Amino acid sequence: MPISNEQVIAHGFLRGLYRDDYYPDRVVDRGREILLRLCERIETERPADLPALYVLTQAATDEFNDLQAEFEAADSEIETVAREEIAGDFGFVADAYGFADADVEELIATRTGEGACGR
Asked: Which of 46, 58, 80, 86 sits between 20 and 30 A of 67, alpha carbons compared?
């Protein structure tokens, strides 16, 4: 299902990571795909409230947790700068779909360890 939210379509996900050679584009592309799949799920499932949104965002966060190994294999990692960028995009997604009251920490509550996305 193609994304219909104009804000999302126009948004440059993980822009800061693409600008930094420390983060390999092919792995950042995988992160961007995670965020786009999250948007597709939100548009398909239409969560009625924050708890329902959190289920979707935390599942996407789990995918970012799994992506850490690919960053490491490319001599990179999801460290502070990357975590901030990823968390910011999760916040953007919540806002774009009308969940301005979403707590970013709750959106990404399933993050793990130093290498996970989050603030």
From this structure: 46
